[in-house]
Amino acid sequence: MQVVTTIAALRAARAAMPEPVGVVPTMGFLHEGHLALVRRARQENASVIVTIFVNPTQFGPTEDFAAYPRDLARDLALLEQVGADLVFAPEVAEIYPPGFQTYVTVEQVAQPLEGARRPGHFRGVATVVAKLFNLTQPQRAYFGQKDAQQVRVIQQMTADLNFPLEIVVCPTVREPDGLAMSSRNTYLTPEQRQAAPVLYRSLQAVEAAYRSGERDAGRLRQIALDVLAAEPLAQVEYVSVADAATLQELEQVMAPALVSMAVRIGRARLIDNILLT
Ligand code: AMP
Q: Less crowded by CB within 10 Å, the N or C end of the chain?
């Protein structure tokens, strides 16, 4: 496994790679959710590139960019084990040199949900992913359903800007108690960690009601809110039942719908979602 930190070294290594190439963009502090994407990329491509970059432009001024957990040595050991070929782990100045001034803005699908609560977040995501696509020239790129709106934003950008690659979406990997794996779970104290599975429990309650025939989106949202309200450590930011393609809120659920939420537990802001099909 080769590790590079400069664009020049990345381009040279990429040019020598057997195709097709799969890329897995990450912010590092890797867990089984990330590794599932790398394993899938390994199965489907001749070469696998993993990028590790905590992207400052996708963090708001009051968000956790500085505190975001980092452990490159551990990440590299894990990536070696799952068979990545090339790791690109640049410094911020390599990606955003002085004078940088070009950004990618995806419009409608980036506006609700996370986009409304994290102004500029998806502009940062789309910009860095566009740059990583240009730099790694992959045939396939792997993303997790855990970040459902991010997937929609990147699908839209890929179509609109004619990137010649396939976006592969992989299922959310969960802890045994249902908590979606996330690098930010490390912010949870033991007591908060015990409370955190309430997100998935509330999503499962919505799914059960949907399976029993409930199609009123307001009642489905309320079912999730009721489960979350029973956990005193959980502070709800939003619960959404939206059209899975447009991400616009629904009144009546016509599948496929995306049920998504953001909930603060302590200093962790947790997101999770399920699709109703
Ligand atoms: P991040 O490092 O948080 O930016 O995530 C990098 C990629 O891993 C994104 O495509 C995420 O959606 C994906 N990912 C993060 N957590 C999970 C998870 N629990 N299950 C599946 N994919 C995940």
A: C
Looking at the structure, do residues 239 and 153 belong to the same domain, yes or no?
no
Identify the DSSP state of 99.
T
**pLDDT tens track for 180-226:** 999 999 999 999 999 999 999 999 999 999 999 999 999 999 999 99
Considering the domain architecture, whether residues 221 and 97 belong to the same structural domain is answered as no
What is the number of alpha carbons within 13 Å of residue 251 lying toward its C-beta? 0
pTM above 0.85, yes or no: yes
User: Would 90 be classed as within a structural domain?
Assistant: yes
Q: Number of structural domains, the chain?
A: 2
Q: Would you say the CB of residue 144 lies under 6 angstroms from ligand 1?
A: yes
Of residues 201, 245, 233, 206, the one with CA closest to residue 222:
206
Q: Rounded CA gap, 95 and 78, in Å?
A: 24
Query: Domain range for residue 10?
Result: 2-170
**CB–CB of 77/52 below 8 Å?**
no
Q: How far is the CA of 144 from the centre of ligand 1 (A)?
A: 5
Catalytic residue list contains 34: yes
